[in-house]
Design brief:
One of its GO terms (biological process) is phosphatidylinositol dephosphorylation. It comes from Piromyces finnis. This is Inositol polyphosphate-related phosphatase domain-containing protein. GO terms for molecular function: phosphatidylinositol-4,5-bisphosphate 5-phosphatase activity. This protein is α+β, with helices and mostly antiparallel strands and 865 residues long. It folds into three domains: 318 residues, Endonuclease/exonuclease/phosphatase (Deoxyribonuclease I, Chain A, 4-Layer Sandwich), CATH 3.60.10; 96 residues, Sandwich (Immunoglobulin-like); 225 residues, Phosphatidylinositol 3-kinase, Chain A (Orthogonal Bundle), CATH 1.10.555. It is built from 30 helices and 25 strands. The strands form seven sheets. It has a six-stranded mixed β-sheet. Strands 5-6-7-10-12-11 form a six-stranded mixed β-sheet. A hairpin with a 5-residue loop joins β22 and β23. α3 packs across α14, α19 packs across α24 and α28 packs across α30. It starts with 24 loop residues before the first helix and ends in a 6-residue tail after the last helix. The N terminus is likely disordered.
């Protein structure tokens, strides 16, 4: 990671869902040009990858690419490529004239591509190699003589499309990793009437690929031919062939640092412009024991594409023949569809072709050298072509090897030598093509390679030893202080990388070696927002835990998370509230936990409850609803717009079992002196508030936190009020009520009611019970625990009373209460209203609201008009 920055977007269950950056490793590492640059310290390291192994491997591969001139020799290979659409004919004639018509040097390799080799209907249905074998025999007969012997390396047939490769016998030993493939582009993409077949092989230490294709016919089908090209270019894939059968020996589990891999793959790093290395490292080789890699036609050092491409001339037959008769072949190329489409850069981008000086190779009367004289009189065209690929930013051969003296003319990987047609063969309506090339291929000096590779490994190890992570945290003690149960509290923990090394970490909260479950689920960590969150429930009274910051290749850091939990009525189960009738402070927290978690009661708890009377509904909930029934009849009130200081007073009274001063809330009449009112007027800043607080005696303190969303709307920060005495609060309330009337108090009490309902750990009506028994109110009532059933009935009676005064409509009340009363049970992290209700889909909410409206009608029948 970068210095003083955080890891982005970790998912903490913990780090189970972490995924490394997707980045172009080849491009990022291209700026590292010397072995002195440390991949663990390099400024781009954090952008390249957070994967330690990939950092090592990409550094090594890049350095090998830089050093390759020291251990790379170049070998020149002569290649003869012939292509011919044979129109389904058998090779009854000799092919020696065509195959020995080379003008340059004796070929080292023959590559022959045939189209329409087999036009029988059976060829589309049943694979049959009879024609392939027949043509192979004729080709071998044509290329072999007393002076030169060739052996067949491979062939690949797809119906009528077939490609053959033969090499001189003495060169066979330098050919390896041969793979073949084909793809159909014809009828339904599978019938093989159009498509391509290909052969990929390693010659010495360079990959060379030959693609023989037959594209869509007809003058008007230019776009179809373009589509065939794109299909072949994208989908013709070759399987990776490892250098030996033991695939596990090739992949050693820590990365591809075997000589074979670099020889055959990594050293192509700067040979071509293809961006395939990153895909190999990050995507295809994740399964150690099952290596599945496919290479496209562009994942090669050298690529030839030839065949009956079927592009025509945009002119009529008579005009074209006149050009031919006048010998204006170059002028004729202005009408060539392939050259036109290439100029638009829609097909064969970065492909090259030798200059065409020969007559069109299509269409002839069979048995003659005369262009089509049939009734259709198809126009002549250069259908049969040979092209080669040259990446725009590929290194020159002279940049790859220092041992070869390369002239300017030879400083290309592919050097064309001859391009012509052969008119003596007349069994087809096409004429065959002759093309000759010299190509450069790499030959690795394994002794020099091993020496340089060993030096690089030592250099990398030295970099690694010099690069130990130095991770610091802002504090090893995160103390949340005293917090109330059933709330979420967040603190920021800064994790800083003070070293120069690429580093990774994980925060561990599980004591289970397999990390299958969290040891303390009430603690969550979100590095994306740099926060530690403690969410308290009714099951704990104290937090004192250790989380471990595990630093890869560094020292672990132990972070202590602490907090004291103090009780509040909110978040305590309904059953528990029905059993306690004294101030909450009267009951030890252990007793509250026993009651709430339905554990076996201790003797002390039994003694405390001995004389307690069990209420039908929670006493404090009754107090809140009773206030709203009595005093909420005059004007419309809302359930989410309470005043923060009035709510704190109400909660204080409820928690401590103190009678609420109704006169104060309704009329602003307080028995306290007004001497402090002036000092509390118009306070909007922390400074003025602090000075006012200093003149007030600090008495009974109020609870510190409230998480209702409405409080974010006030301009006064909650923390301002934490040092208010009860006397000061009552004075402030009196001032508010005198100015604004009783509505702020009614709104505050209504909001307290909703806080109760939303923070019951088990809802008044748990959704699981509602699903099973919620069709009728009486059925549901009978299925609920008694205290839940009584509470539900009492709330519905309150709603009915509110409806009767016609201040708040039934539909408004249903929307407000339905999802608060009927909802899923909540856990530690579902404390806020918006989080609880979001667990229910819209359809579920609608279903709940319809049912709740029905319950109201069942309990309180609508008045007859």
């Amino acid at each position: 990671m970068k210095n003083e920055e955080y890891y982005p977007d970790f998912s903490f269950n913990w780090l189970n869902n972490y995924k490394a950056y997707k980045t172009d490793l080849e491009e990022k590492f291209s700026s590292m040009t010397t072995t002195d640059e440390n991949p663990f310290i390099h400024p781009l390291s954090s952008e390249i990858t957070l994967n330690y192994r990939l950092s090592r491997e990409c550094w090594i591969s890049k350095q090998l690419a830089i050093e390759q001139p020291k251990f790379t020799d170049l070998k020149k290979i002569n290649i003869f490529i012939g292509t011919w659409n044979v129109n389904g004919r058998d090779p009854e004639c000799s092919l020696k004239g065509w195959l020995n018509s080379y003008k340059h040097k004796i070929p080292d390799i023959y590559v022959i591509g045939l189209q329409e080799m087999d036009l029988s209907k059976e060829a589309y249905i049943v694979s049959n190699n009879e024609k392939e074998n027949h043509w192979s025999e004729k080709i071998e007969e044509g290329i072999n003589s007393l002076n030169k012997k060739y052996v067949k390396i491979a062939s690949q047939q797809m119906v009528g499309i077939c490609v053959f490769v033969y090499v001189r016998k003495e060169l066979k030993k330098v050919i390896s990793n041969v793979s073949t493939s084909f793809i159909g582009c014809g009828l339904m993409g599978i019938m093989g009437n159009k498509g391509a077949s290909g052969i990929r092989m390693m010659i010495y230490d360079s990959y060379v690929c030959f693609v023989n294709s037959h594209l869509a016919a007809d003058t008007m089908q230019v776009q179809r031919r373009n589509e065939d090209y794109r299909d072949i270019a994208k989908n013709l894939q070759f399987p990776f062939i490892p250098p030996r059968d033991n695939i596990n020996g090739f992949y050693n589990g820590t990365g591809f640092n075997k000589e074979q891999f670099y020889t055959e793959n990594m050293l192509r790093f700067n040979i071509t412009s293809n961006k395939w290395l990153n895909n190999i490292c990050q995507e295809n080789l994740k399964e150690k024991g099952n290596m599945k890699i496919n290479f496209s036609i562009y994942d090669n050092d050298i690529l030839f594409w030839f065949g009956d491409l079927n592009y025509r001339l945009n002119n009529n037959s008579d005009v074209i023949k006149e050009y031919i008769n006048q010998g204006k072949i170059e002028d004729l190329l202005e009408f060539d569809q392939l050259l036109i489409e290439k100029a638009k850069q829609v097909v064969f981008t970065d492909f090259y072709e030798s200059k065409i000086t020969f007559k069109p190779t299509y269409k002839y009367d069979i048995g003659t050298n005369t262009f089509d004289t049939s009734e259709k009189k198809r126009a002549p065209a250069f259908c049969d072509r040979v092209q080669w690929y040259k990446a725009s930013n590929a290194l020159k051969p002279s940049e790859v090897s220092f041992s070869n003296k390369i002239t300017i003319e030879d400083n290309e990987w592919i050097i064309p030598k001859n391009y012509n047609s052969y008119g003596e063969l007349t069994i087809s309506d096409h004429k065959p093509i002759i093309s000759e090339f010299e190509i450069w291929v790499r030959k690795i000096n394994t002794e020099k390679y091993s020496e340089i590779y060993s030096q690089l490994i030592k250099q990398l190890d030295h970099h690694e030893n010099d690069s130990i992570p130095v991770i610091k945290v802002s504090s090893i003690l995160v103390d949340f202080g005293t917090i109330t149960n059933n709330i979420s509290t967040t603190k920021t923990l800064i994790i800083k990388n003070e070293g120069k090394v690429l580093s990774s970490y994980e925060l561990v909260t599980s004591l289970d070696d397999n990390k299958t479950s969290l040891s303390f689920p009430w603690i969550s960590v979100k590095p994306s927002s740099n926060t530690l969150t403690v969410t308290t429930g009714i099951s704990i009274k104290k937090i004192d835990e250790i989380i471990i910051l595990k630093v890869k290749n560094g020292n672990d850091i132990f972070i202590n998370v602490k907090s004291e939990i103090v009780p509040s009525l909110f978040g305590i189960p309904i059953e528990t509230l029905c059993q306690i009738n004294r101030p909450l402070s009267y009951y030890p927290w252990d007793s509250i936990l026993e009651l709430s978690n339905k554990k076996e009661l201790s003797e002390k708890t039994k003694e405390l409850l001995e004389n307690e009377e069990i209420s039908c509904i929670p006493k404090n909930l009754y107090v809140v609803i009773d206030f709203l029934i009595k005093y909420g009849r005059d004007e419309k009130y809302v359930f989410n717009n309470g005043n923060i200081i009035i709510k704190k007073y109400i909660k204080y009274c409820l928690n401590n079992n103190i009678d609420i001063d109704n006169n104060l809330l309704l009329f602003g009449r307080s028995s306290l002196s007004d001497s402090y009112l002036n000092s509390l007027d118009n306070l909007t800043s922390m400074d003025s508030m602090d000075s006012a607080i200093s003149s007030i005696s600090k008495m009974e303190k109020l609870s510190l936190y409230d998480y209702q969303s409405s409080e974010s709307k006030t301009n006064l920060n909650e923390i301002i009020y934490k040092n208010y005495s009860l006397k000061a609060v009552k004075q402030k309330i009196a001032e508010i009520v005198k100015r604004q009337g009783k509505l702020p108090s009614i709104n505050s009490m209504a909001e307290i009611l909703m806080k109760f309902l939303y923070e019951f750990p088990n809802a008044v009506v748990p959704y699981e019970i509602f699903k099973k028994y919620g069709s009728k109110f009486q059925t549901l009532y009978s299925a609920l625990p008694s205290c839940h059933a009584n509470t539900l009935n009492y709330i519905i009676c309150y709603i009915g009373d509110t409806i009767s005064y016609e201040l708040i409509s039934k539909s408004e009340l249903v929307k407000t209460f339905a999802s608060a009363i009927i909802r899923p049970s909540i856990d530690f992290k579902e404390q806020q209203e918006q989080n609880i209700t979001s667990t229910m889909t819209i359809s579920k909410k609608e279903k709940v609201e319809i049912a709740f409206s029905q319950y109201i009608d069942e309990v309180i029948p609508p008045k007859k008009k």
